[in-house]
């Protein structure tokens, strides 16, 4: 009997009967010795016999009981990966673990992200599996920028030192080759002297390659280190054989120079890889280290980690806001460009929200902390960008499949090259050409092609206020040919304003507005609130109605200062026998202009019309024009009637209008367009847009909208205008172009280089140089994305 005990998180339990139900189901499962479910902790503690059941079966039992097991996500820091074959190997062994739903490994960041039902796999199991495959692993804890920087600098320093020593020892060997070709003999041509110089390069400087190759082979795979150590060892040991047998043909310079050049390439690669994640480092570096708070009526400065929700924080001009909160005293203008990409400072006063890491430009203010630590907007953005950078785009699958079988194929080609030239020419030629094949082949470039571009692309997006959830969504965005915009709050501001006040009879405009505002004050309808705001702007004295009744779909009825007031649409007036025929023309004219007209009657007589309209955002027209110029088909979707919808659509240049669509039917409209073979993007901001955002190929949430919309979307635009949609799609096109360029050069390089080497047309040292710089060229090409405007 193999007894194991695990704690599994259970979500959805609301009462004791829920926990009892799960507990009963688990205890009935064969192999379970004892199961207890804690309702408060939302956790099931299970003791079971591994020979009779497993963690996955227990998760299924919980799900069959009607409850969910939330997914856990662990990030592993992997040590020892040198190329795509390594990352493919680690990914394969992690995905084989029982219970793992998905594991992805990123060669650029040296991280693995493992997803599994919460509680069923312990950290040490993940680490053991990776170590057994020949690599080091540790669980990533809270991100420590200084530690990361220190580790990266340590790696670069180690590579530089190794390269310099290797170069000093290899230079005489390289020079000896030219003296030998010129027929000049000196100390440099002496085999024993060459052996003394080559040995430290081969075994001390080159130890990293032997170690990597050993770990890889022990784990059942093969990587770049295997190719390098095989190729250089063949040249080195054959030179020793010739030295001992008296043959004056040495290849010490080949093995030493190859190692030197590869180290140079690795140094450049490490520096360049560090630059790919600069966007996250820049974001994380924005948050202040301390905050000035008021405690016990005293102003003190404390580390930001010690802040608690509810603390009153003081921010002086020129300082950064430490965390998220709401202003309780003072006013200012804040530069939010690091979050939204919008350079114009935003005016803030009492009651307004402030975001951590934004800059206070002018006045001193106090705010109450509402979100701290990992809950702040900045932390959420960093998390989102990190997740995106660690994800894989579908285009990477081909490269992953090839890199998984790459090394064995290259070893096979090298063996065939050696045998062919051995029989056609001689042993020496066969060996040198086989070494060239081993050294020219580079799975690194394949492995770095996609992740480096995605890291820079998503980072660049974050700098511009565009948060892309994953590499998959970034790839999908470039395929979009149709885009649907929700009207309210997306194309328009979502804040209706009074545009017209028409008065009939002997009442003046101010009197009519005062009556309407006083009645609407009791209403929560956005159109009513627009009337109240207009009255407040005109400094009118607003009262409260004596009686108030809302009539759904029609308007409202109230008593005010002894008068009977009705405010609403045609149906309300006609239902109360109030004639509107004389003013029908004026009413229709307002509606034709895309305005919502509200009829007002006082004591059963039509007294006026107040028209309200949702104003179009300043950038909507220009953004839609740009999208159409990019070849996209643009739609507008709204619950408004067709006449009003078409009027607004015409103002922004949209001809495809989906009007009278109820909130719950928006997702169906998206699905209909998808069935026509279109790749659909949906842009929205409200809760009612969430199903449509999820149904679209790519959902864009306007960040000024709700958290629900942002959660359902694939791409979140932190700014409230539509220019972000244009930028996101352009960034997607540019990133995909970079990925395709990278993959082309990685494939082209190997497709040309390996046959050239196999045909004996490439010197091993040139092969080593080309191999070393292939990865550098791929990473450098990805870094060009940083210039994206």
TrEMBL record:
Its main location: membrane. One of its GO terms (biological process) is copper ion homeostasis. It is found in: Cell membrane. The chain crosses the membrane at residues 159-179, 191-210, 222-244, 250-272, 402-424, 430-450, 742-759, 765-783. InterPro entries: ATPase_P-typ_cyto_dom_N (IPR023299), ATPase_P-typ_P_site (IPR018303), ATPase_P-typ_TM_dom_sf (IPR023298), ATPase_P-typ_transduc_dom_A_sf (IPR008250), ATPase_P-type_domA (IPR059000), HAD-like_sf (IPR036412), HAD_sf (IPR023214), Heavy-metal-associated_CS (IPR017969). It catalyses: Cu(+)(in) + ATP + H2O = Cu(+)(out) + ADP + phosphate + H(+). It comes from the Bacteria. Keywords: ATP-binding, Cell membrane, Copper, Copper transport, Ion transport, Magnesium, Membrane, Metal-binding, Nucleotide-binding, Phosphoprotein, Repeat, Translocase, Transmembrane, Transmembrane helix, Transport. This is Copper-exporting P-type ATPase. It comes from Wansuia hejianensis.
């Amino acid at each position: 009997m193999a007894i194991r005990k695990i704690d599994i998180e259970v979500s959805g339990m609301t009462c004791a009967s829920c926990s009892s139900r799960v507990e009963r189901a688990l205890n009935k499962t064969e192999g379970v010795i004892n199961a207890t479910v804690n309702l408060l902790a939302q956790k099931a503690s299970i003791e079971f016999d591994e020979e009779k059941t497993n963690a996955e079966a227990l998760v299924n039992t919980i799900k069959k009981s009607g409850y969910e097991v939330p997914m856990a996500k662990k990030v592993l820091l992997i040590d020892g990966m040198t190329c795509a074959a390594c990352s493919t190997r680690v990914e394969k062994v992690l995905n084989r673990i029982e219970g793992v739903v998905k594991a992805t490994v990123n060669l650029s960041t040296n991280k693995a992200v493992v997803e599994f039902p919460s509680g069923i796999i312990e950290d040490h199991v993940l680490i053991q599996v990776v170590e057994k495959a020949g690599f080091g692993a540790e669980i990533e804890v809270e991100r420590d920028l200084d530690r990361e920087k220190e580790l990266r600098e340590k790696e670069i320093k180690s590579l530089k030192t190794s390269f310099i020593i290797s170069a000093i020892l290899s230079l005489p060997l390289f020079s000896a080759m030219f003296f030998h070709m010129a027929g000049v003999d000196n100390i440099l041509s002496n085999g024993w002297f060459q052996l003394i110089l080559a040995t430290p390069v081969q075994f001390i400087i080159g130890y990293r390659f032997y170690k990597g190759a050993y770990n890889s082979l022990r784990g059942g795979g093969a990587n770049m280190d295997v190719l390098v150590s095989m190729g250089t060892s063949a040249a080195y040991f054959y030179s020793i054989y010739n030295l001992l047998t008296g043959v004056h043909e040495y290849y010490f310079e080949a093995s030493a120079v190859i190692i030197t050049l590869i180290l140079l390439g690795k140094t450049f690669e490490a520096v360049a890889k560090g630059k790919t994640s600069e966007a996250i480092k820049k974001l994380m570096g924005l948050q202040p280290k301390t905050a000035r708070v008021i405690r016990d009526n005293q102003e003190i400065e404390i580390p930001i980690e010690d802040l608690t929700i509810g603390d009153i924080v003081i921010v002086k001009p020129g300082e950064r806001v430490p965390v998220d909160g709401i202003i309780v005293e003072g006013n200012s203008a804040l530069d939010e460009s690091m979050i939204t990409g919008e350079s114009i400072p935003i005016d803030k006063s009492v009651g307004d929200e402030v975001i951590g890491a934004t800059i206070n430009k002018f006045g001193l203010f106090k705010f109450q902390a509402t979100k701290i630590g990992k809950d702040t907007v900045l932390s959420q953005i960093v998390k989102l960008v990190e997740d995106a950078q660690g994800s894989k785009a579908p285009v990477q699958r081909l490269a992953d499949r090839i890199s998984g079988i790459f090394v064995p194929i290259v070893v096979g080609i090298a063996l065939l090259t050696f045998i062919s030239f051995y029989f056609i020419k001689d042993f020496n030629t066969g060996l040198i050409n086989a070494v060239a094949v081993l050294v020219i082949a580079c799975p690194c470039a394949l492995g770095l092609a996609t992740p480096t571009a995605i890291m820079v692309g998503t980072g660049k997006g974050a700098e511009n206020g565009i948060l892309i959830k994953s590499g998959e969504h970034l790839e999908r965005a470039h395929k979009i040919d149709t885009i649907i915009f929700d009207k309210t709050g997306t194309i328009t501001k979502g804040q209706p304003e009074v545009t017209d006040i028409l008065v009939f009879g002997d009442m003046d405009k101010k009197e009519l507005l005062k009556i309407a505002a006083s009645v609407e004050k009791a209403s929560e309808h956005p159109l009513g609130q627009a009337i109240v705001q207009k009255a407040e702007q005109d400094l009118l004295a607003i009262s409260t109605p004596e009686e108030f009744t809302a009539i759904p779909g029609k308007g409202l009825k109230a008593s005010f200062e002894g008068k009977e007031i009705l405010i609403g649409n045609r149906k309300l007036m006609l239902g109360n026998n109030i004639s509107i025929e004389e003013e029908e023309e004026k009413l229709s004219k307002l509606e034709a202009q895309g305005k919502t007209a509200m009829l007002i009657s006082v004591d059963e007589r039509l007294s006026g019309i107040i028209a309200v309209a949702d104003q179009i955002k300043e950038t909507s027209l220009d953004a839609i024009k740009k999208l159409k110029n990019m070849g996209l088909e643009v739609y507008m979707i709204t619950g408004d009637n067709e006449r009003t919808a078409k009027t607004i659509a015409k103002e922004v240049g949209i001809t495809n209008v989906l009007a009278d669509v109820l909130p719950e039917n928006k997702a169906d409209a998206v699905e209909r367009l998808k069935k026509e073979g279109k790749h659909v993007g949906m842009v929205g901001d409200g809760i009612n847009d969430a199903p449509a955002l999820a149904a679209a190929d790519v959902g864009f949430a306007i960040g000024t909208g709700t958290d629900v919309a942002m959660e359902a979307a694939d791409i979140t635009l932190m700014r409230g205008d539509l220019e972000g949609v244009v930028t996101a799609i352009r960034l997607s096109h540019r990133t995909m172009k970079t990925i395709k360029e990278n993959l082309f050069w990685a494939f082209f390089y190997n497709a040309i280089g390996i046959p050239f080497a196999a045909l004996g047309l490439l010197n091993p040292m040139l092969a080593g140089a080309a191999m070393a710089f292939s990865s550098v060229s791929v990473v450098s090409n990805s870094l060009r994305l940083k210039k994206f405007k």
